[in-house]
Amino acid sequence: MMRLVLPLGGCLLLAACPSDPVADPTDGGTTTTASTTTPSPGTDTTGDVPGTSGETPTTAGEEPTTTGTSTSSGGEEEVFEPAPGGLRRLQRHHYVGSIRYLFGDAAAGAAAPPEDYSLHGFDAIGAAELSLQESAIEQLEASARAIAVAAVADRSTLGGHVPCVLEGDPGDSCYDAVAADLGRLAWRRPLTAEEVAPLVAIAKEARAWGGGDFATGLQYELMALLQSPYFIYLVEVGEPDPDDPAVRRLTPTELAARMSFFLLGRTPDAALLATAEAGELVTDDDVRAVAEAMLARPEARATLSTFYSELFQLRDLATLNKNNELFPQFTTELAYAMTYETLRLIDDIVWQQDADFRTLLDADYTFVNPALASLYGLPPPPGQGFAKVALSAEQGRAGLLGQASFLARFAHPAETSPTRRGQFIRAKLLCEAVPPPPPGVDASLPPEDPDKPQTMKQKLLQHMEDPSCNGCHSLLDPLGFALENYDPIGAFRTLDDGLVIDPSASTADLGPFASARDLAALLFDDPRVTACVIKNFVRGSLGHIERLGEIGVLDDLEADFVANDHRLQHLLVELTASPVFRAVGAPK
Amino acid sequence: MFNRRTIPRRTFLRGLLGGSTAVVGLPLLEAMLDSHGEALADGAPLPTRFVTWFFGNGVILPRFEPTATGPNYPLSEQLEPLAGVRDYVTVLTGLRNRCEQTVTHHEGMTVFNGYTMTELAGLFSKAGGPTIDQLIAAKIGQDTPIASIHLGVSKHLSVMDSGTTMHALSHKGPNEPQYPQFNPQQAWTDLFGAFAPTADDRVLRTSILDAVRDQTAALRTKLGKLDNERLDAHLDGVSALEKKIEATAPLCALPEKPTETNTDINGVEPITAVNAVMSDLLVYAFQCDITRVASMLFHGGAAETVFSEIGLWSGHHNNSHNPNSEELHTGIVHIMGRFADMLEKFKASIDIDGKNLLDTSIIYCSSDCAEGWTHSIQRQPIILAGHGRNKLVYPGIHVQAAPYPMSDGNTSDVLLTCLQAFDKTATSIGAGAPMSTTPMEAIKGTMF
Question: What is B41-192+254-443's CATH topology?
Answer without folding.
Answer: Alkaline Phosphatase, subunit A (3.40.720)
